[in-house]
Amino acid sequence: MTLKYLAASALMLMSFDVSDAAFEAYTQTIPGTEVSFGMTPIPAGTFSMGSEKHEDAQPVHPVKIDAFWMGTHEVTWDAFEMFLDKNYELAISEGPIEDQVDGLTRPSIPYLDMTFGMGKEGKPAIGMTQYGAIQYCYWLYLKTGIFYRLPTEAEWEYAARAGSETEYFFGTDASQMNEYAWTQENAEETTHSIGQKKANPWGLYDIYGNVLEWTSDQYDPAYYGVSPDENPTNPSTELYPRVVRGGSYDTPAAEISSSKRYVTTADWKRIDPQIPKSQWWFPEAPFLGMRLVRPLDPPSEEEILAYYEAKPITDY
Amino acid sequence: MKLENSRRDFIKTSALVTGGLMTSPFVLPGAYAAPANELKLALIGCGGRGTGAAFQAMETGHNIKLVAMADAFRDRLDNSYNALVGKYGAEKIAVSEDMKLTGFDAYKQAIAEADVVILATPPGFRPIHFEEAVKQGKQVFMEKPVAVDAAGIRKVLAAAEEAKAKKLNVVVGLQRHYQANYIETIDRIHNGDIGEIINGQVYWNDGGVWVRERQPGQTEMEYQMRNWYYFNWLCGDHINEQHVHNIDIANWVKQGYPVKAEGTGGRLVRTGKENGEIFDHHVLTFTYEDGSVIHSECRHFPGAQNRVDESFQGTKGTAYLSAGNHGVLKDWKGNVLYEHDRKNQPNPYQVEHDKLWAALFNGEYKFADAENAAKSTMTAIMGRYATYSGKPLTWDEALNGQVDLMPETFAWDAMPKVLPGDDGYYPHAVPGKTKVI
Q1: Does B305 sit within 8 Å of A81, measured CB to CB?
Q2: Lowest mean pLDDT among A89-103, A155-169, A242-256, B355-369
Q3: Which end of chain A is more exposed for a tag (fewer CB within 10 A), N or C?
Q4: In chain B, which residue's Cα lies nearest the Cα of A81?
Q5: NCBIfam families annotated for this entry (chain B) (predicted)?
């Protein structure tokens, strides 16, 4: 399949499945600030999830996914840092912080430099736990009224594949990875500003490389054998391992693909000097970030709050 | 009882600025001597870091029994106990109800129960706790910084001498001294790989730390104790509490302590009632005896770009170090002379305990970190004195400072020396006006 064909089929899919005229790319401004981010529509469809190449990504099985928007880019520090610190949010906002946002639990400000010296502006926010990533979504919900959440593993893979059935969304030629991704080979051991490389056919930047991206799923190597075939999700019940996707600036290009499953490990908090260890930060995962999803058809408010208000698991 | 009598040669350990330390036997208090079969531990200060240190002690795999816990607050103690007993069980965490000691004097009895103590309260208490531990002849792991003012430093230096005389091991949580990239790279600097060090820059620039909201019914003493980071008698300002790490690296690289400090600082973006009296930025130059200068910078500015690392320039090349396992030496043409392998490095917080407890169970006297820790802490305090007063001052002036920040009385209904005004704001230093020594 050529890239041109892929892109064309992707467009067709979109035009076929999108009945709601409002289902198009948009820019979300964080109310009261000048900070914004892009959301890209991902049409509903069915795809083959998994790969013969990876033992834990089998069997390859058909999965039907409902439509959603996905963050055009990884979440940046510019947006994430407002959630970190109420005073900072207040300082750069045009008005006071709304009461419900004011009352939200925010991260303990990290004792360590969570940018790891790699810089902030335009760069992906890094090192947050899944709990921290979801609480960021909660903060955004309170600010915008829109249900933002983490992608499921299936949604992530579907969006990354963008209609392709090959190992990479750009086909089978790994040497092209340099055009699309910051990897161990070209990133020089650091995160890079979002959107410097070419997007995938559905318009998602840095879906491979730069930083690993959180999903909402627990990691189960056998899950594909029992997974439901519509909108599968395997909610997290244990702290480790959970699924992260996409590879990072620290991953060799040859190990990155749409189907490759990466897992979190307790070692990422190894040098946290405090017990219990932080619910919010991985001081040894500068390669981990997040990307948002917004379902086209949001669940009830009760379900939304249940998602956001799930209690963190204490980490010793 | 088996005692080792022969004195071993001086060993050179790169973990110590002061060079060699004698490896020789110590006598553990109580009915046994080295090598030990079991050692009793007391935890003084049961917050996140103290609990973390107790975990690291337990993780060494030696036969350690936690026998006493002390904290000002029962809730902090309970959280810590529950985490420890949940992980290691009641046989290792053998802290009976009457050994859960709370209040300002709890440390004394806890120290008495143990062979080894972890001192991890807010740093203002460290001098009196360290003094007591050494007086009682106990082995010590204590957290940095080790004091908040010159009066406290003088206590720690005196106790450090006594600890040496008693051959008590003292490890201090300046864990970069137990981190391979620092040890390996600074060894090479000391070997002259980049010539004489004539200049350097050390940074702790980040977004700041936690605030705990004032609760109804809290006394002023309890409020300040809960928010210890924002009060100098407890914390010594963030230049002391955090930046001491980087300043200590400058001293380690320079193999000495600055003779003079001058600088500027203030409260610019973190100015709330909840932010107590500390500054949010300090910028300093420290001058060493040979005339070389180290630039030091620390700030708590949310949103600004962070940086926590150290750079040095020598007559033949440059060095770059960070807690993220960097260790790079280059010549002035940019050629890499040495680069530390950053992957799969051991956790320095664990290494410091592995080394300490191995020595303790072997009956060895190997660690005397207190003097360097006191002098590096003093360097940070001297920095604060310079930024608070807005005047340059010498090491001797700073070390002889007579201003004692500690309250006259330690009790929940007693008053700390710094109190909020009618508007709820705390007074803070004003450079040009404030007297610091």
Answers
A1: no
A2: A89-103
A3: N
A4: B303
A5: TAT_signal_seq
Q: Which residues contact B338 (CB under 8 A, 6 or more apart)?
A: B184, B185, B188, B193, B327, B328, B329
CA of B242, closest CA in chain A: separation in Å? Answer: 9
Q: Give this prediction's pTM.
A: 0.90
DSSP B282: E
Of the candidates B347, B361, B377, B366, the residue with the CA atom closest to the CA atom of residue B116: B361
Chain B: residue nearest A114 by CA? B306
Residue B343's Cβ-side half-sphere holds a number of Cα atoms within 13 Å equal to 2
Mean pLDDT across A133-161: 97
Q: Between helices B244-254 and B370-389, what is the axis angle to 10°?
A: 120
Question: Which residues in chain A have their CB less than 8 angstroms from residue B339's CB?
Answer: none
pLDDT in tens, A221-250: 999 999 999 999 999 999 999 999 999 999
Q: In what order do the strands lie in the sheet with B393-394?
A: B336-339, B326-331, B317-322, B307-314, B197-206, B293-300, B281-287, B260-266, B393-394
Nearest-Cα residue of chain B relative to residue A278: B48
B272 vs A87: CB contact, 8 Å cut-off? yes
With a cut of 70, list the residues of chain B below it in pLDDT. 1-34
Determine the distance in angstroms separating the CA of B401 from the nearest CA of chain A, rounded to an integer: 30
Q: Which amino acid is at B315?
A: T
The model's pLDDT over B146-183, given as tens digits with 9 standing for 90+, comes to 999 999 999 999 999 999 999 999 999 999 999 999 99
